[in-house]
Design goal:
Layout: H1 3-24, H2 33-43, H3 50-61, H4 70-87, E1 97-98, E2 101-102, H5 104-108, H6 110-129, H7 136-150, H8 155-165, H9 172-197, H10 202-229, H11 232-235, H12 241-245, H13 250-254, H14 256-273, H15 282-293
Antiparallel strand pairs: 1-2
Helix pairs in contact: 1-3, 1-4, 2-6, 3-4, 3-9, 3-15, 4-6, 4-9, 7-9, 8-9, 9-10, 10-14, 10-15, 14-15
Length: about 300
């Protein structure tokens, strides 16, 4: 798939996800309005929708219509957005900007940001539970997949170790644990949920799991590199904050050159995992390459 086609695909899928989020979630003026305004403020602050697009792309790679996975795609974006709202809070990263605009707590206050994040996380599982046109057992499996990826043995566990590791010298396996869990688990779950809802065979599921694991880690390594090489304008927030906070990152441990090599190697692993799929998996192949060439 050429870059122009991939960009068009991403644009179309982002529009589909944005429309579904507006349709499925409470409108901003739903009582109490301040809560729902805060949710929408962060949800529609300009995200790339990578995770929900991966849900849809995995389903399509198996020949399914994207609509079978649209609720799960929206759920993943709700979980991702909740995590960003909470990460930005003073008790964690204390960031003033996200995607070039004030963070949720800067606009609505700490308490409302916490509650907006809580509401988005809770809504995610309602959305998956409302999936129609799919065998109920698959819906339950998708709920379990997302719960595991977001919880103490997934994203939250990675975040905890990330916090505990600030300013410390940690062994490489701990760094890898942080990246795989804090970021990689939700990306992997996105791919796997699309596969589950599309009725993947065991072999197809294993292949897409290998793909998801590889791009999940590659994405966070690329993020580490962008924090070093990117500008405030490109990132939509202050660059260089990982070093300032003493964060455990790949560039800090391995250097920029080796970090880029490892990210590229992971892309090769991801693309190789899709060898048994036809051209319907081209968007997934394109996304794997885009992850390490993006500037934001």
């Amino acid at each position: 798939m050429c870059l122009l086609d991939l960009d068009k695909y991403l644009e179309e899928k982002c529009a589909l996800v944005n429309g579904a989020l507006r349709d499925l979630l409470c409108a901003p003026d739903t009582y109490p309005p301040v809560l729902h305004e805060a949710e929408h403020y962060s949800l529609f602050a300009g995200g790339k929708r990578l995770r929900p697009v991966l849900v849809l792309g995995a389903a399509e790679a198996l020949g399914a219509d994207a609509t079978v996975a649209i609720n799960a795609a929206c759920a993943v974006e709700c979980i991702h957005t909740y995590s960003l709202i909470h990460d930005d809070l003073p008790a964690l990263d204390n960031d003033d900007l996200r995607r070039g605009v004030p963070t949720c707590h800067k606009k609505y206050g700490d308490a409302m940001a916490i509650l907006a994040g809580d509401a988005l996380l809770t809504s995610a599982f309602e959305l998956v539970g409302r999936t129609t046109g799919v065998e109920p057992g698959r819906v339950v499996q998708a709920v379990v997949e997302l719960s595991s990826a977001a919880g103490s043995t997934g994203m939250i566990g990675g975040q905890v170790v990330d916090i505990e590791s600030e300013g410390c010298e940690i062994p490489f396996p701990v760094l890898e644990y942080i990246h795989i869990h804090k970021t990689g688990k939700l990306i992997l779950a996105s791919v796997r949920c699309g596969a589950i809802l599309a009725g993947a065979t065991d072999e197809e599921f294993k292949a897409l799991t290998r793909y998801g694991e590889a791009i999940g880690l590659a994405f966070q390594i690329a993020d580490d590199i962008l924090d070093v090489e990117g500008t405030d304008e490109e990132l939509g927030k202050k660059a260089g904050m990982d070093e300032l906070r003493g964060k455990a990152t790949y560039p800090a441990q391995l250097g920029i050159v080796e970090s880029k090599r490892r990210a590229s190697e992971l892309v090769e692993v991801a693309v190789k995992a899709l060898e048994g799929f036809d051209s319907k998996a081209d968007p997934l192949r394109g996304i794997a390459h885009k992850i390490v060439t993006r500037s934001s």
